[in-house]
Recover the amino acids of this structure.
């Protein structure tokens, strides 16, 4: 079965997941489908979902501590019943490249946890995968020059094109079982990190002197996590 409509939901902080949602929208339109993307905060607008619409729903979001972000989990509580409408899940993860070597990230339980929630809500899950995008934790993944980031993005888009060709035509695609297994083994670390990250680690991030202080990041952060600080030249 070939779908007629694609509804993409995204949750994105620095733009990786949003970029993937845009790629999928463009590929769907090229394939003759109607396509729309919306932030996950608009999830309530998914009303009157039914089989007769030939609708495919996708969601893309970043991995946090080898699982799905708290904000996304809270948003999905408002997800309307799916009536077995097909959906697919993409978790972006921190891909890196050091010298000639590219290293994959690990989404852990992120993708399959969200897929499970969709299944419980009555959707028919037809795709689950993790996708390497340029890491945004530059203090940890230091090998990310602009050239490396462009390399990782190019590889990601190539993979999305191949996967979209399969999913948009009505077929299924599942991957990431090794990552899921490792994620389950790392659950104690994940839970500890989520708490530490929320109350302590996040406080250690601040802008360097290269920041212009424009405030765009603070204005566009989907959960209001960024504050402008300083009298002479406020910076994030």
């Amino acid at each position: 079965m070939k779908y007629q409509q694609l509804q993409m939901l995204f949750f994105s902080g620095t733009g990786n997941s949003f970029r993937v949602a845009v790629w999928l929208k463009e590929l769907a339109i090229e394939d003759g489908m109607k396509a729309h993307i919306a932030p996950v905060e608009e999830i309530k607008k998914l009303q009157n979902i039914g089989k007769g619409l030939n609708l495919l729903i996708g969601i893309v979001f970043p991995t946090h501590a080898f699982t799905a972000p708290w904000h996304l989990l809270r948003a999905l509580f408002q997800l309307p019943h799916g009536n077995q409408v097909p959906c697919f899940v993409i978790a972006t993860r921190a891909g890196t490249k050091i010298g000639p070597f590219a290293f994959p990230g690990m989404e852990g339980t992120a993708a399959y946890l969200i897929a499970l929630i969709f299944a419980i809500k009555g959707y028919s899950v037809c795709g689950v995968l993790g996708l390497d995008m340029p890491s945004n934790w530059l203090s940890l993944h230091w090998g990310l020059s602009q050239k490396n980031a462009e390399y990782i993005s190019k590889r990601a888009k190539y993979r999305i094109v191949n996967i979209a060709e399969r999913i948009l035509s009505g077929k299924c695609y599942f991957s990431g079982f090794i990552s899921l297994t490792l994620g389950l083994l790392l659950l104690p670390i994940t839970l500890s990190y989520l708490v530490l990250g929320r109350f302590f680690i996040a406080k250690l991030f601040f802008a360097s002197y290269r920041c212009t202080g424009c405030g765009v990041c603070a204005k566009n952060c989907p959960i209001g996590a960024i504050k402008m600080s300083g009298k002479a030249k406020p910076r994030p």
User: Anything to note?
Assistant: The chain has two domains: 5-185, 211-236. The two ends are 48 Å apart (CA to CA). The chain has a mean pLDDT of 89.
